[in-house]
UniProtKB/TrEMBL annotation:
UniProt-listed InterPro entries: DUF6534
Keyword terms, alphabetized: Membrane, Transmembrane, Transmembrane helix
Keyword Signal (UniProt): no
TM helices/strands, residue ranges: 20-41, 53-71, 91-110, 122-145, 165-186, 206-229, 235-256
Stretch forming the signal peptide: none
PANTHER family: CHROMOSOME 1, WHOLE GENOME SHOTGUN SEQUENCE, DUF6534 DOMAIN-CONTAINING PROTEIN
Keyword Membrane: yes
Record's protein name: DUF6534 domain-containing protein
Domain DUF6534: 172-260
Amino acid sequence: MERRQEENTLNSIQTKGPVLFLLSINWALFGALTIHVYLYYRAFSNDRRILKAMVCLVYLLETTQIALITGTAWEELVLTAGSVQDSVGTIWVSVYLVGGAVAIIAQIFYAYRILMISQNKIIPGVIVIMSLISFIAAVVLGVLIKSVDNFTGDAVHTMKISALMGIWTGASAASDVIIAGCMCYFLSQRIRAGCFPKTQAFITRVICMTIETGTITATVDLLCLALYFPPTLKNFYGVPISILAMLYSNTMMTLLNSRMKPVIISESETWKHNELSMINVSTPLREADAKLRFASTTGTAESGLRIPEEGTVA
C-alpha cells in the first residue's frame, strides 16, 4: 500500500511538477514582455507602422499563449488534482503553433536587420529559409500532438514526432547561432571602420545583447532536445519548449528597446508632462530636482535598429 502511494506521488511529481514550473516561468516572462511593450510604445511612437504592428502581433500571440497555458495548468493542477492526467488539451496550439509563429517573426526581424546592416542578401536568405523549415516542423508537430492522448507519454515519442522535434529545435538553434554571429561580425565591422565614441558605445551594447540573447534562445532549443529523448526525462521537456516563444519575444523587444537610455530631467517637467519623450540632456537642471527617466536615442520614423547618426544622443 505504501509502495503504491509512493509510486503515485512520484508520478504526480513527474507530471504536475513541470506544469507548475512552466506556468511560473511563463507568467514571469509575460510580465517582462508587458513592460517591454509598454516602454516601446511610449518611447518609440514614431517607429514605422509595420514595426509597431509586428510588436502588437507578437504581444497578442503571447497573450493568447499565456491564457491557454494557464487554462491547461488549471485543469492539470486543480480540476484533476490527485490523479495523473497530463492531457494534451490546448498545448498543441499554445506551445507548437504559437511558439513556431513567434519564433519565425523574431528570426525574420533579425534577418531584416542583418540585411540592413550588411547589404548582403545571402545570409538573411539562409536565416529565413531555416526559420520557415522550423516553423513548418512546429505546425506539423502541433497537428500530430493534437491526435495523441498524453503529452508526455510514449505516443509523443514516435519516430516521426522525434524527427520533427529535432528539425524544429535544431533549425531554430542554428538560426539563432547564425543571427548572433552575423550581427556581431557586421556590427564589429562598423566599429573597425571608425566611428565616434558614442556610436561605438551603442554598437558595443547591441553586440553584447545579441550574444546574450542568441545564446539563451539557442541553449533552450538544445535543452528541449536534451530533455526530450532520454526516457527518464521525457516528462520535463515541456518546460523549456513552452517558454521558447516568450524568450524570442522578450529578446526581440530587448533589442528594440536598446535604443532607450536613462537621462536626467527636472521633477517639475516630469509632473507636467508625465510621459516619455525626447530629452535634451544639455538642458540646465537643479540637482535636487533631478529624476531618472527613459528617452529614445533616435525617435525617427525610420528607427528600429539603426546606428545613431554622429552627433546625436547615442
